Amino acid sequence: IRPLLREEADLVSGTLLEVTPENFLEKMLYTSMEFKRLVFRLFRGGDNMYNCVGPVRAFRRRLYQTIRFRPNIADDMYTYLFCTNNGFTFAFVPEAVVRYQLPGTLSDYFKQSFRYNDYLGKADEHFSHDFIVRHTRVPFVIYLVAGMVTLVKYPISFPGYIGLKVMTRVVYLVSRRSHADTWETVQTSKVLRRIV
Fold this sequence. Notes:
Elements: H1 2-5, E1 11-18, H2 24-42, E2 57-59, H3 61-64, H4 75-85, E3 90-100, H5 106-122, H6 129-136, H7 140-153, H8 157-175
Parallel strand pairs: 1-3
Antiparallel strand pairs: 1-2
């Protein structure tokens, strides 16, 4: 929280690290998080919405006394967008780490993914489209570089994740219902099985 104490930032967030994956789905998701961590650290020097994560956030008093959370948008996403849209500052502090459990079933993974897609779509209700694009659109070259690095490191699970991502998008589009109004708990990510 040093940036808060030094009054260099109004909102800080750190790194989410996964506990050791146990099944192939978790291994694919673990690989995806390695890929995303690289992408998010390269995008905007790490100070971006994707590095503002719920379990490891801290606020300066002037921000948390101002912000009013909205029920139809993910609070970590909303926090970052509200902060930057209203002249507050955000800082990513990578050495602040919180461990969490990945979804262990396809059903739980779909629930998480669908919620994220719904909430990103609802951000337009609170912020201008241009503002959201500026803060969420990662340049393709960053994805390309991170993808090549990840593919070399994880030659089996990374292509598996890409296939899973495509399948998830198709299922989401075919289902054609808003999942944001029904918050279903992702059961398999609520219990830490082992840390290392």
